[in-house]
Design brief:
The protein contains 13 helices and 17 strands. The chain has three domains: about 80 residues, Rossmann fold (3-Layer(aba) Sandwich), CATH 3.40.50.20; about 60 residues, Dna Ligase, domain 1; about 180 residues, 2-Layer Sandwich (D-amino Acid Aminotransferase, Chain A, domain 1). The relative contact order is 0.12. By secondary structure, it is α+β, with helices and mostly antiparallel strands. Strands 9, 10, 11, 12, 13, 14, 15, 16 and 17 form a nine-stranded antiparallel beta sheet that branches. The longest helix has 16 residues.
């Protein structure tokens, strides 16, 4: 089976690494000349809206998926005329737009921060007066890793902010005073079978994920699965979906979903019976889903900007390095490490060892 992937970054790379043992081959459509997944399959270098190359991709593969939500929904809709594409164009259309996303949560009875659609500075002024400060203004599409957003704490922060974010459609969200950030990785097969990985505790710095620790018997696991299940059913979703939540007053408030394999699920490569990457491929290919059970205790640490010396990383007991082969650049995710242990105390010590290398 040959899988087409829109996007050739590290997520596409890890999909190929998971699918190769299953006898799958890959073709990546990505405009970047140095797409890091290119060495693991055919590389069609083209823009995501290039219909000639999209048609070429459709003709060469059995099905198509995508590695990130910056892909235009129109691209997926076009491809769907010629080849099966999972997740669907409609799922992508909603998940990539924060207004559509939050409106869906509200319709499904999933708690969210207060929010408002912002089309102008006047809309922003009115929404701030209603929702209050502090608040967060985010572009409706394309923002990630802290990009395309601004925290508004005072009235002075509001002045001119719509133009500062590019005068594009935005979403204003009330600031959430949370006790923790967690994410749930879910996978749904073509026939509707759904499985969930354990909730993950996430730590961010400057809007970028730094550390994910898989939980054991989290008290909010069932609630998170309920909320995610509503979304998966609503979207008739196929593949892996990540759902980020805020822990608030003993419950959960929805932050956002990602219609793809997700950074906070990287620990599953070594820390679960079947990784998020393999399970995504199983789901879109119509294969049986794999077990989402944990294998011991696991944590994932991102390498931002540069990867520490390889010998020092892998000298840490049960530490697994994933180097993306990308050029080092400030603020760029260039690799990660997963540490695994039989107990949480040992895992915490391993995490500190990796963190020391990051800060060195």
């Amino acid at each position: 089976m040959k899988i087409g992937v829109i996007g050739g970054g590290q997520l596409g790379r890890m999909l190929a690494l998971a699918g190769t043992p299953l006898g799958m081959n890959f073709a990546f459509l990505d405009p970047a000349p140095d797409a890091c997944a290119a060495s693991l399959g055919e590389h069609l270098r083209a823009d995501y809206g290039d219909q000639d190359h999209l048609r070429q991709l459709a003709d060469e593969v059995d099905l198509v998926t995508f590695e990130f939500e910056s892909v235009p929904a129109e691209t997926v809709a076009f491809l769907s005329q010629f080849v099966p594409v999972y997740p669907s164009a409609e799922a992508l259309r909603i998940a990539r737009d924060r207004w559509f996303e939050k409106s869906m949560f509200k319709d499904l009875g999933i708690p969210t921060p207060a929010f408002a659609d912002i089309q102008s500075q006047a809309d922003l002024d009115a929404a701030v007066a209603s929702i209050g400060l502090p608040a967060v203004l985010k572009t409706r599409t394309l923002g990630y890793d802290g990009k395309g957003q601004k925290v508004l704490r005072t009235a002075a922060d509001v002045v001119g902010t719509f133009a500062e974010l590019g005068s594009v459609p935005c979403l204003l969200e009330g600031f959430v005073s949370f006790t923790g950030e967690v994410s749930l990785i879910a996978v749904r097969a073509r026939d509707g079978e759904t499985r969930f990985y354990p909730l993950v505790h996430n730590t961010h710095e400057s809007g970028i994920l730094r550390l994910s620790v898989a939980s054991s018997e989290h008290p909010l696991q069932a609630l998170a699965e309920d909320y995610a299940g509503r979304v998966l059913k609503q979207l008739d979703y196929v593949g892996v979906l990540a759902f980020e939540f805020f822990e608030v007053d003993g419950g959960l408030k929805a932050n956002e979903i990602a219609p793809r394999v997700h950074n906070s699920g990287h620990w599953t490569i070594e820390g679960a019976e079947c990784s998020q990457f393999e399970n995504h491929l199983r789901a879109v290919a119509g294969l049986p889903l794999g077990s989402t059970a944990k294998v011991g205790e696991s944590a994932m640490l991102n390498f931002i900007g540069e990867v520490p010396p390889v010998d020092k990383v892998i000298s840490i007991d049960d530490c697994h390095l994933h180097h993306y082969g990308k050029a080092f650049k400030v603020g760029r995710k260039v690799g990660h490490a997963t540490v695994r242990s039989a107990d949480m105390a040992t895992l915490q010590a391993q995490v500190k060892q990796v963190e020391a290398l990051i800060k060195a």
